[in-house]
Design goal:
The structure holds two protein chains of two kinds.
Chain A lengths: L1 H4 L14 H26 L15 H27 L2 H31 L8 H33 L6 H30 L2 H4 L1
Helix pairs in contact in A: 2-5, 2-6, 3-4, 3-6, 4-5, 5-6
Chain B lengths: L21 H6 L3 H30 L9 H36 L7 H19 L18 H4 L12 H32 L12 H33 L13 H34 L6 H14 L15 H29 L8 H24 L1 H7 L3 H31 L5 H27 L16 H31 L37 H7 L38 H18 L2 H20 L9 H4 L2
Helix pairs in contact in B: 2-3, 2-4, 2-15, 3-4, 3-6, 3-8, 3-13, 4-6, 4-17, 6-7, 6-17, 7-8, 7-9, 8-10, 8-11, 8-13, 9-10, 10-11, 11-13, 11-14, 13-14, 14-15, 17-18
The complex binds copper (II) ion.
Copper (II) ion binds next to helix 8 of chain B.
Chain lengths: 204, 643
């Protein structure tokens, strides 16, 4: 069956003309909105719950802006990777996929570095309700980025074994992982805005 | 059918080949086998949860009884609630979704067959993990709603009577439900895509059977409710496992947050539990009243309305938590409003039966049982919407009576109705009619004896969740009646199990359409072939099967369609009869991946981080193996195989 439908348009034969995989990814991302929505709400709720520990003044906006920029650029690289596989250029696809994953890793190392600085300055997971909310929110985002990096790595690897090629099925897979990656990126923009940029007195 | 390609795949494991025998069940991706396994596992959990209830009722049968210690009672009633909600009713509904949705929409299987298998195994893994808590010194013991700060300090903060490490019990609660949530979420995504994208030609939304509609609404509720409870469960895990501060007042946390998150999930969950049963009776009543469903559109749209309004009533569980009069009034009103769409359904069911030529077979008896019992539970629910009244009833047995009338009198009666109705489809044999009727009447009597008196007990001030009570409160007689009722229920369920076992082996033969039914799953054989339909039916009306029988055929000639319900093979005609339809192949990965999750969770509970690492490693590796494995192996050339 797979070979027969290879030439058909993506989503052919479905009621909505959208591939099942893509519709599934959209449903999943809808669910994720609630997940991050709840964690972001809890963070805002706990802005004042700093106890004896440091508050939002601890954040280093310039540093995190740089890592945010890297993550943003990784979305661009993801777009380039998808364009490459759609053009049938596997070499270019591999390069951009790897680039996307590396930028994701850069963002993650920024996060790890940031965490160590905060801990040194006296704000750990257990310091206050505020610190717990901050670390859990941002690290769950970090987990999402890590899963994205793993998926990109798998795509890159599978492009050598032939599991990922220029077929319609492979393109849909890449497009789906791209959707996930962009989503995680957008969530970070939201977190960055709420946690780092907006002054606390506007939120409380 | 599940012929494996001559050339081995490039996957990490070779493809499982068996299509019969017990290994075929472990690796199957067939939605019908998965549905049957969902039912079997859910039934086992239902029996265990029932046993827990019997122990509690034995303890409560008389004042100052000493059947159970306080600690044992706390664990049992917590586990009873968790088991019945997450491991009995939800998966039993999932059994119906899995078995019926593809058949009812004319699809070959669900959209993601391997993901479907994963949902099953993850749900079973979650149940095993939660129950393993008894091997580690105790099960969760602070109620299924598990409010903060009791969840952090335990029911006995001074450590006077209870043993056990309470934090560990809470980790079992948190991680066990978290894993079960993964199963529900994966299944919800799968079924949403299946129903939206894989309907047979001509099956428009307003021709879909009501069961399909209600299932679709439930999947959306699960999709958006599971992440909310997921967040609360993670917070609990960080608090008890890693000294986090989400619910700790002294560090700036707010315990009330748990209640908001829990009930923001919890009220939609109520509809997750009941809507499948509503869908089931909406199929059964028209068939056995031999009339079309009265007010199809009203039932569908009221179901959708419930799906939306269910998000705006959660604080009716919190009227006594000090939200203030404005919030209480608002949520009281919204709760009264949400009774309207449910009332619409009740009236439509009564309208369906009105003037019908009724056949009182077991499915119909249970369906009518739902309509009657759920109405009682719904009415007592409306009394909770009245804030001052609720303040009196809060945390009493009146509430216990209410939710058993909606969950047992509603969900369980409806699910059992579905079992009697679709058992002939799944096994080609009837459940025994006499045993079925005995089951129904005993269950109806036992149920009302067990939970009817609890209204009185609650209004007389008996608090729920207490392991014992003094005599002389006026509670003794009704408690004894309630316990007797519980044991009558147990007897009726025993008859049900006997009936299931006997009928699977030697039930009376049933043909494809034994009830003279209305929906297209009855056009397929009983039991259906692995590919469901040799030719996918073209749907031209609501109640398609009925119209083909009684209104002069179904219009267009059915055309053959290959696996996955895509229409692009239709032209090949002759080639695609039964044995040539290429179905997705079985896979080891769902089972292996599911096994990694409880390992990781046991690692967190015991602090053996290496174990967590191994569990996560298994998850990642099997996810990779899964990605490397095509959904189905390239088809061996038909000419050489079937020459
Ligand atoms: Cu509610």
């Amino acid at each position: 069956m797979a070979t027969d439908t290879e030439s058909a348009a993506p989503g052919a034969g479905t009621n909505f003309g959208v591939p099942n995989e893509k519709m599934g990814m959209w449903a999943f991302l809808g669910s994720e909105c609630l997940f991050f929505g709840a964690f972001i709400s809890v963070y805002v709720l706990y802005l004042g719950g700093t106890g004896d520990g440091p508050g939002p003044a601890i954040f280093d906006i310039p540093f995190t802006s740089v890592s945010t920029f890297v993550l943003l650029m990784s979305s661009l690289a993801m777009v380039m990777a998808l364009a490459a596989i759609q053009d049938g250029d596997m070499r270019r696809f591999r390069t951009w996929t790897l680039g996307t994953a590396l930028m994701g890793l850069t963002f993650l190392s920024g996060q790890v570095y940031e965490y160590t600085v905060f801990v040194e300055e006296g704000m750990g997971l257990t310091t206050s309700a505020f610190s717990t909310a901050f670390f859990v929110l941002t690290s769950f985002h970090g987990v999402h980025v890590s899963i994205g990096v793993l998926m990109l790595g798998a795509l890159w690897f599978m492009s050598f074994t032939g599991r990922i090629d220029t077929s319609q099925r492979s393109q849909t897979a890449v497009e789906n992982i791209g959707l996930y990656w962009h989503f995680v990126d957008i969530i970070w923009i939201l977190i960055f805005t709420v946690v780092y940029l907006i002054p606390v007195d506007l939120l409380t | 059918m599940t012929a494996v390609a001559d050339t081995p795949s490039k996957g990490l494991l070779s493809r499982p080949g068996a299509s019969s025998g017990w290994t075929s069940w472990l690796t199957t991706v067939d939605h019908k086998k998965i549905g049957i396994m969902y039912f079997a596992a859910a039934l086992i959990f239902f029996l265990v949860g029932g046993l827990e209830a019997l122990l509690m009722r034995a303890q409560l049968s008389t004042a100052n009884a000493s059947v159970l210690s306080a600690d044992a009672y706390n664990q049992l009633f917590t586990m009873h609630g968790l088991t019945m909600i997450f491991f009995a009713i939800m998966p039993m509904s999932a059994a119906f979704f899995n078995y019926l949705l593809p058949l009812m929409i004319g699809a070959r299987d669900v959209a993601f067959p391997r993901l479907n298998a994963l949902s099953l195994w993850v749900f079973i893994a979650a149940g095993i993990f939660l129950y393993s808590s008894w091997l580690f010194g105790g099960a969760p013991d602070t109620t299924w709603v598990n409010y903060a700060p009791v969840q952090e300090v335990g029911p006995d903060p001074a450590g006077l009577t209870l043993g056990g490490d309470h934090d560990q019990r809470m980790l079992f609660y948190s991680l066990g439900l978290q894993i079960a949530g993964i199963a529900s979420l994966a299944s919800a995504i799968n079924l949403i895509v299946t129903v939206l994208n894989m309907r047979a030609p001509g099956l428009t939304f307003m021709r879909m059977p009501v069961f399909v509609w209600m299932s679709l609404v439930v999947q959306f509720l699960i999709l958006f409710a599971m992440p909310v409870i997921g967040v609360a469960l993670w917070q609990l895990m960080f608090d008890v496992g890693f000294d986090g501060n989400f619910f700790r007042v002294d560090a700036g946390g707010q315990p009330i947050l748990w209640q908001h998150l829990f009930w923001l999930f919890g009220h939609p969950e109520v509809y997750i539990l009941i809507l499948p049963a509503f869908g089931i009776v909406s199929e059964i009543l028209p068939t056995f009243a031999r009339k079309p469903l009265f007010g199809y559109a009203a039932i569908v749209f009221s179901g959708i309305a419930i799906g939306f309004m269910g998000w705006g009533v959660w604080a009716h569980h919190m009227f006594t938590s000090g939200l203030g009069p404005v919030a209480n009034a608002a949520f009281g009103l919204s709760t009264m409003f949400i009774a309207v769409p449910t009332g619409i359904k009740i009236f439509n069911w009564v309208g369906t039966m009105w003037g019908g030529r009724m056949r009182f077979s077991p499915p119909m008896l249970f369906a009518i049982g739902l309509v009657a019992m759920f109405t009682i539970g719904g009415l007592s629910g409306v009394t909770h919407a009245v804030v001052p009244s609720d303040a009196q009833q809060h945390d009493t047995y009146y509430v216990v009576a209410h939710f058993h009338y909606v969950l047992f009198g509603g969900a369980i009666f409806g699910l059992f109705a579905g079992v009697y109705y679709w058992f002939p489809k799944a096994f080609g044999k009837f459940l025994n009619d006499r045993l079925g009727k005995t089951h129904f009447w005993l269950q109806l009597i036992g149920f009302n004896l067990a939970f009817g008196p609890q209204h009185v007990l609650g209004l007389n001030g008996m608090p729920r969740r207490y392991y014992t009570y003094p005599s002389g409160m006026g509670w003794d007689m009704w408690n004894m009646v309630s316990t007797i009722g519980a044991f009558i229920i147990a007897l009726s369920v025993l008859i049900f199990v006997v009936n299931l076992v006997k009928s699977v082996r030697s039930g009376e033969q049933a043909d494809a359409d034994p009830w003279d039914a209305r929906t297209i799953e009855w056009l397929s054989a009983s039991p259906p072939p692995p590919h469901n339909y040799d030719e996918v039916p073209v749907v031209t009306s609501r109640d398609e099967a009925w119209h083909r029988k009684y209104a002069g055929g179904g219009g267009e000639v059915p055309r053959p369609v290959p696996a996955g319900a895509s229409a692009d093979h239709a032209e090949h005609g002759e080639e695609h009869h039964g044995e040539h339809i290429h179905m997705p192949d079985p896979s080891y990965w769902p089972l292996i991946l599911a096994a990694g999750l409880p390992l990781a969770a046991w690692g967190v509970v015991t602090g053996l981080w290496a174990l967590s690492g191994i569990g996560l490693g298994i998850v990642l590796l099997s996810a990779f193996g899964w990605a490397m494995e095509p959904e189905s192996e390239p088809e061996p050339h038909a000419e050489s195989e079937h020459a």
